[in-house]
Amino acid sequence: MKPMKHAGPHQGFLGRLGVGAPRSGVFGGAPWLLALALLSGCAQDEFADLRAFLTQAGQGVQQKLDPLPPVMVKEEFTYDPGELPDPFRQRSMKTGKGGGIQPDLTRPKGPLEQDPLDGLRMVGTIFKAGKLFALIRRPDGTLYRVSKGEHIGQNYGVILSISESSIEIKEIVQDGTGDWTESKASMALQE
Fold first, then answer.
1. Hey, where are the domains in the chain?
2. Are 101 and 138 in contact (CB under 8 A)?
């Protein structure tokens, strides 16, 4: 094994990089400074062609845009219900002003009065003892036999007549002012 020589001041960091002792010459014995100067010169010019392309690409091209349409100002509308009742409030079952038609609010309701008319279906008729009956099916599938004069639906409906193809019903409904009025409805046979 050879004895190690003491490294001089020039052998510290540069020696570890593999650069030898400074030599005399045009650049003062530092060839690595020449390499560094050449590399830094290349780095400044690396994107010159890209900059030139971008400068030329934007010249002479003007894209015309259509003007924006004019802003339409909507006229503001304010709803004023005036004396009209609130359509989202549940109607009260109070008696009307005129005292005309009134449903019997004390009468116990039957099973066919628990559902609205559009939830009930006429599915057939039966002729028994000289009388025509209608077969009504509730939404839960229960079948009922009804005759003229029986109550049906949630609006105090009464069956006026039964035919082979339909049932005629008179309902009593409350209007917005609290008065009770009659309305007619029919239920057709569902096949």
1. 111-188
2. no
User: For residue range 95-117, what is the model confidence (pLDDT) as tens digits?
Assistant: 545 557 888 888 888 999 999 99
Report residue 102 as tokens.
């009134």
Is domain 111-188 in CATH 3.90.1170.40, yes or no? no
User: Secondary structure of 3-32 in the HEC alphabet?
Assistant: CCCCCCHHHCHHHHHCCCCCCCCCCCCCHH
For residues 146 and 159, the answer to whether their CB atoms sit within 8 Å is yes
Chain mean position to CA 40: 60
pLDDT of residue 164: 92
Task: Extract the tokens encoding 37.
Answer: 């100067």
Q: Please state the φ and ψ torsions of residue 16, each to the nearest 5 degrees.
A: -65, -30
Q: Is the pTM of this model over 0.85?
A: no
Residue owning tokens 């030599």: 23
Q: How far apart are CA 89 and CA 93, in angstroms?
A: 12
CA nearest to 146, candidates 156, 191, 160: 160
Measured CA to CA, the distance from residue 93 to residue 128 in angstroms comes to 38
